[in-house]
Amino acid sequence: MEVAAPIEVSDVTLRYRLDRNRVGTVKEAAVRFVKRDHSYESILALDGVTFTVSPGEIFGVIGPNGAGKSTLMKIIARVLPPSSGRVIVRGSVAPMIELGAGFNPEFTARENVIIYGALLGRDPKFMRERVDVIVEWAGVADFVDIPVRTFSSGMKGRLAFSVATDIEPDILLVDEVLAVGDQAFRKKSEARMNELISGGASVVVVSHALGLVRRLSERVMWIDSGRVKMIGPAQEVVDAYEASG
Amino acid sequence: MTVAQPTVYYDSDQNRRPLITEFRNFWRYRGLIKLLVVRQLTVRYKRSVLGVWWTVLNPILTIAVLWVIFSNFFGRGGTLDEPYIVYLSAGILLSTYFVQGVNSTGASIINSRNILVKMYLPPEIFALVTALAAAAHFILSLVPLFLLQLLTGVGIPWTVILVPLPLVTMLMFVTGIGLLIASAAVYFRDVLDITRVLTSLVNFLIPTFWTIGILEGKSALTLVENNPVYSYLVSFRLLVYKGVIPERRFLIMMVVSSVVALMLGVYVFSRNWRRVVVRL
Fold it and tell me: Which of A218-232, B9-23, B62-76 has the highest average model confidence (pLDDT)?
């Protein structure tokens, strides 16, 4: 018997309704109602995207800016519900997108680690036990009881990365986060990613670093304007994408 | 050989089951809710000496001003058995709880936008957190009220142990109304301004600084008496310093209005959340 795919995305469409005259207030809406102005623009951020990720696979997503890559990640991470189509995710997810959202500058690193972990769905009690390990790994152990507002952006990035990868997830969603921190930390974080991957995690990686995508991924999907242009072996797709200029 | 299938964690086709989903989320995320309430209570005052007591200062100043102006009108004439200052304080504290609760809960979803568009969390927990913070402020403000009751010789009757009844039903009432406003506020930002204006009229719709006696024989009396917030106000005063159990009609009004408001708020929010998230 086959293990079900950790990620199944079928015919997913995301439609934003952009009101042309930006109805933002009751007053405006009333005025427009009186004027019988009902025009609005609908924007397709994703249009009929279909793919599956197999267990333990590293799946790359490439495409130009605004192609819908990050939107797609948010749909898999459950942040945005698809307008139509279906997403099924089987297993625990570590979303490494928008790292450090939810950090509050007034709170100490310790408090932020606990809150951030809890926001990621982990038990606060468990987080309290893990704080020391997490700050140690991020290299900010000496500043654990100091407000995060005094931290450099690199320190914050490392701390967030350390929290996000503190568990062993079944699925890892990576959106350009390998650019966190200095050279030494980048090496360290790549090593941890590889550790998680060899532990059997499936990975979806979004990146503009084509070399990295080609090297890491088994299969790659190329999307443009919300549509799948090509999906297949990494080498082939990245080459085609590069050839397209 | 069978391979263990991992549990489905997320299926976008699984729709919310209004009410069930939300109450389950409230329970599932209780640890986070606790953390966020503490965060909300402390963050604004991290660097101030008075700390969280600043929030209590606001209603106290309102009370002081109203007392100076109205103690001569309502404090005499024998309409009140208790000192006017105690009557006034209890009234203002309760209406502050309602007004601040509704306004902040209404704004809670928009204010949590930064987190909600970046990571998955059931948005309704942010509404509950904000309403809980308003309740916590109300509890803190009971301390100066108790002091006042002791100083004026009114004392603290045994019925204070029943104050959680108006406290908790008001929490449900505020959460429900707050969720209704929060759903609308995502579409129309000025809903929050409109709410602020409307709720600022509350002190004229329920007898906080004035006494119900001045409406004797007027048609406005029925309007005030059938206002659900009035039942919370009367019950709170009776329990916190009068030492009297409220009449049954007030108890029924509190319980019914809180349950209806909460169910309605959660239901409307649940039915709309898909459209709401995308618009945040």
Answer: A218-232
Domain span holding position B239: 32-209+216-279
* Residues in chain A with pLDDT values less than 70: 1-2, 18-24, 37-40, 177-181
Q: Choose among B46, B188, B279: nearest Cβ to A29.
A: B188
**Domain assignment of residue B7, yes or no:** no
Closest-CA residue of chain B to A29:
B188
pLDDT digits (tens, 9 = 90+) for B134-174: 999 999 999 999 999 999 999 999 999 999 999 999 999 99
Q: Is residue A23 part of a domain?
A: no
Which positions in chain A touch B6 (Cβ < 8 Å)?
A: 3-4, 6, 90-91, 170
Question: What's the confidence (pLDDT) of residue B33?
Answer: 94
Q: Which of B21, B119, B183, B195 to mutate to test the interface with A (most CBs of A within 10 A)?
A: B119
The answer to whether A24 contacts B189, with C-beta atoms less than 8 Å apart, is yes
Per-residue pLDDT, A136: 93
Counted domains in chain B: 1
Q: In the prediction, which pLDDT does A199 show?
A: 83
Q: What average pLDDT does this structure show over B255-259?
A: 97
* Distance, CA of A23 to CA of A18 (rounded, Å): 9
Nearest by CB to A88, from B11, B187, B277: name it: B11
pTM for the whole structure: 0.88
The answer to whether A12 and A46 are in contact (CB under 8 A) is: yes
Do B43 and A104 make contact, defined as CB atoms within 8 angstroms? yes
Question: Does A98 map to a domain?
Answer: yes
Q: How far is A60 from chain B (nearest CA, A)?
A: 21
Domain around A102? 54-243
Tell me whether residues B47 and A106 touch, CB distance under 8 A. Answer: yes
